[in-house]
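Observation: inputs received (chain + manganese (II) ion).
Thought: call the complex predictor directly.
Action: predict_structure
Action Input:
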Amino acid sequence: MSAFMASKHDGAICLFGAPFDSTASFRPGSRFGPGAIREVSYAIETFSPVQLFDLEDCSFMDRGDLELPFGDPNPALARIEEAAHDILSAGKIPFLLGGEHLVSLGAIRAAAKSYPDLKIIHLDAHADLRDDYLGMKLSHATVVRRMMDLLGPDSVRQIGIRSCTREEHETVTGLRSSPEQIGSWAGTKPCYLTCDLDILDPSVLPGTGTPEPGGLMFNQLTEILISLVTMLRIVGLDVVELAPQLDPAGVSEIVAAKVVRECLIALGKRA
Ligand code: MN
Ligand code: MN
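Observation:
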């Protein structure tokens, strides 16, 4: 039992983990992300001094981790989609813990069925807009391209991107937005927030598969997340790419758990 697991049994927000990292191109290990976040959620306070609100007053529950097959990503994505669909059908908000970034596609496929006009807010160091990666259409490096295939070219806005290919660069420039710009773009449309933790500087969160220097500080990220969650009609979200074993100091998992806490509180406070 962790602070997250100890949550109410029938909450408005449903956490669930996707321990999957089969397409990791550099350093695997994000399959251990959801478990590590739960375990260290013991170690952090439930109260947020930034939002002046306590996790204990938020209506959420933790459904634990999915059991996912490795290798071919298709069956894993199908299981993630099914779990997200169950949560959405019950009128709740799915909050997915990765796993590598590809897992988001499963949740977004489910959300797109419930909300055909879904908008995606993508926080990441990397564009993830390749059409294929070494011949693979389904990869952490192509995941946002697959979301755009599904929902259309104007369905995505990005924050934090600082690494892309020459081919991706023009698209990245067009999608880069501030939270305020995203607020006026999305209006009251349903939004899905996908947060790749490597948006943070590697000095803040070294425990990730593809660290990218020049990133955000912790307070910058939480400020952005809180403003997005407060402003937008969030119908689903995820926090992905924590690879806890790549940080022997064990700080990254605490950073990730605090990001999750601030998101839960921002959502729960709103409800
Ligand atoms: Mn990513
Ligand atoms: Mn990334």
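Thought: report the result.
Final Answer: The chain has a mean pLDDT of 95. The first strand starts at residue 13 and ends at 18.
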